[in-house]
Amino acid sequence: MIFDLFDNDYDEDGFRTCNVTGMSIHRSVENPVKVFGLTAVVALVVGGFFAIGVALTRWEFVGLLGPEEFYRWLSLHAWNLLIFWMVFMEIAILYVGGPMVLGRRLPIPKIAKVGWGTMVTGALVINYAIWTTEAPNQAPLLTSYAPLPSSPYFYAGAIIFILGSVVAALPFFVSLWQEKSWGEGGSLPLVTFGAFVTSIIAVEALLGGLAVMVYAFLWRIEILESIDAAVYRQVFWIIGHGTQQINLVAMVTVWYFLTHIVGGAEVVSEKVSRTAFVLYIFFINLGAAHHLLSDPVVSISWRIWNASYAFYGATLASLIHAFAIPAGIEAGRRRRGKGGGLFGWLTNAPWKNPVFSATIFSIILFGFVGGITGVVMGQVQLNMTWVRTLATVGHFHGTVALGTTIAFMGLVYFVIRTMFMREFRFGRLASLQPYLYAATMTAATLMLMYIGLLYGVPRRIHSVVRDIPGTDFSLSAAEPLMMIFGPFALLAIISGAAFVVVALASVLFGERKLPGSDLVPDEGVEFESDEPVHKFDMRGTFVITLIFLGAFIVVYIANWYLLSQLWSIGP
Amino acid sequence: MGSPIKPPDEDWWDVPVNRRESIWLGLSVAWSMILFGWMSLWTRIGDQNPIGETYDVSTEEYQEKVESYREEAETLDGSIVPPSDDIYVAGIRFQWRGLPVVVETGKTYKFHISSYDVQHGFSIRPEDVLSQHTNLLALPGYEWVIEMEFDEPGTYHVICNEFCGVGHSSMHGVIEVRDEVNV
Ligand code: HEM
Ligand SMILES: [Cu+2]
């Protein structure tokens, strides 16, 4: 049975034509995609499990764990979800966006295996290091801020994992190089281009990560005598932030891919969308500076220039995609005769297909919840009221736990149907799951933001709402909102578990079947018509994006108002 | 045509852009400029800016500064009364050295913020209005001098909001703001 997971009907050369996408898929690409995808789901299970202890401790009404355990669980939560779940998925996305879309074999497949093995080793070492943390070492959390010492195995594991990721990305680069030297010339498909941009940003991030982890490791094993806390922070955020930009760009690429295949979306302007990706290459990594906004050492002009991605170049890029992707759905569906009124193209869309609903929720929630707050808290002065509070945690659960995680869940559903060729087990649950997770996680995320912003409740702290040891003072005014946060956090974890149940049950016990036409629009994925797509009406999208801009402006003004209430700080 | 998984038509650069998409592009550029412009402007006209000089300082040097400051200072109800406009604070696991301190409304103080050991988050809020809070980083090896002037009297609580070890949640200190401080 387990072997049949890795076998489809390939021809003599090992190729098959996908009856959903029409792509020509080689065995050497498809199997690593499955392996990386499954590994990612395992990391999701582990990280999701640790979310239970994190949420039930922060909800001090329950107060599940003692401090030592809490920081340990929080570290495991962060590393397994933010790093392992995401990066294993991203390597799979590189293989899909590169060789699979291009209809090529995976070059140097052995290297892909070595990369996977190295990454798994690194992930295991890190989990072990965190789990066995003992004084004088402290749980690293995500950042392992020096000079707080973590277990030396932790830094070693991080170095191994980073190296593994670079190795695993190599086949992707080789396939692009092959396409450029042997292919037909011309431009890469947009999805491949997006994957390429992702990989460039990834290389920059990983090199920074290697530098900082080697630096910290040498200090921790006492080859270097001291470590500079400011230098550590600056270099750490090259990878700490860079990986988030990988998540972002990979997610945007997945949006273009899945809305096209399951929603009938088209690219309304290659010029505009590609320009937006290029803006990412130039500007997005500057944003690492927004982790140093309420820091000493770095000058104010440096902070303003970098944290704003030089005049908001990367924000502009995201605003462009925010229009281009829904517009692609709208114009694409109108072109297929699925329009009707302002929003008919949206209401008659395949909402029961979890691949579709997950993708749409990811787009909306990333924008409204994660995106807006990210820009707001990325402003130098506003940062003082967000940073190191639960509002920050709310922001990044908006980006990674809503945006990226939901998009990747959709992608896993898609891989189950089209590559594992399984029907869903618990089909109704599968249809419902994106709704459940999106709704409950949104509620929990919003609560985190309010709790952080309105009551100044710090992040990364064992107890502070009910009890600050040694004083009568506490932040108990935040208790009512915490009582909403706690149950929704639990429901979000359960909805995440529902995803895992559906995914694993389908892969292992699902009926094996060629994916049906229920997955794609009635007219098939590629739709030919004389009328070019940019001529179709985009007014529905225009209305949605105007609402988005309106929400952005309201949140922006409200935050500046809150800040202006503070006493005077600075010159 | 229009497929993101097929190479685009050769003339993709010359394909016109939909009017509404062009308008959105214009709005986006304008909004980006406003974001940048307002943030920059606030450094000139605004009252809340995380701006101040940073000095390299060794832990020992900073310890000396803090201790001589404490010796010079008088106390009032157990709180330090700063002898001049300089106030020294150091994070050390798990307390705030230099707190509690008592200050006057309407007077500009220079807060010197640093740490003796690891990173700490220097986070201040008035007891009654929790939505007013601010977060500044205390870094070992660096002395950050940042001005503050309080306009409302009251008890301001300082907690640590950067993880600094298992006892982190017990790090608490007080800034007492009074209309007049008479020793
Ligand atoms: C399933 C529901 C989830 C719940 C209930 C949850 C809950 C939380 C909470 C309450 C915190 C803050 C703890 C603190 O700072 O004291 C936290 C931190 C964090 N979470 Fe989640 N989370 C969930 C899913 C995710 C997902 C899917 C990701 C990433 C893809 C993620 C990544 C992180 C990271 C990176 C941190 C910060 C760790 C640090 O401070 O170093 N979480 N989570
Ligand atoms: Cu602390």
Automatic annotation (TrEMBL), chain A:
InterPro entries membership: Cyt_c_oxase-like_su1_dom, Cyt_c_oxase-like_su1_sf, Cyt_C_Oxase_1
A GO CC annotation given for this chain: membrane
GO MF annotation terms: cytochrome-c oxidase activity; heme binding
Taxonomic lineage from the root: Archaea, Methanobacteriati, Methanobacteriota, Stenosarchaea group, Halobacteria
Biological process according to GO: aerobic respiration
Domain Cytochrome oxidase subunit I profile per the UniProt entry, residue ranges: 36-509
Source species: Halorutilus salinus
Transmembrane regions: 35-56, 76-102, 114-133, 153-176, 188-218, 246-265, 277-294, 309-329, 355-376, 396-416, 436-457, 484-509, 542-563
Keyword set, alphabetical order: Membrane, Transmembrane, Transmembrane helix
Name of protein: Cbb3-type cytochrome c oxidase subunit I
From TrEMBL, chain B:
Pfam families on file: COX2
Membrane-spanning segments: 22-41
Keyword Metal-binding in record: yes
One GO CC term, this protein: membrane
Keyword terms, alphabetized: Copper, Membrane, Metal-binding, Transmembrane, Transmembrane helix
Positions in coiled-coil regions: none
Molecular function GO labels: copper ion binding; cytochrome-c oxidase activity
Source organism superkingdom: Archaea
InterPro entries xrefs: CcO_II-like_C, Copper_CuA, Cupredoxin, NosZ/Cyto_c_oxidase_sub2
Subcellular location(s) per record: Cell envelope
UniProt keyword annotation of Transmembrane helix present: yes
Every Cytochrome oxidase subunit II copper A binding domain range: 82-183
PANTHER family cross-referenced by the UniProt entry: CYTOCHROME C OXIDASE SUBUNIT II (PTHR42838), NITROUS-OXIDE REDUCTASE (PTHR42838:SF2)
Name of the protein in question: Cytochrome C oxidase subunit II
Organism for this UniProt entry: Halorutilus salinus
Lineage start: Archaea, Methanobacteriati, Methanobacteriota, Stenosarchaea group, Halobacteria
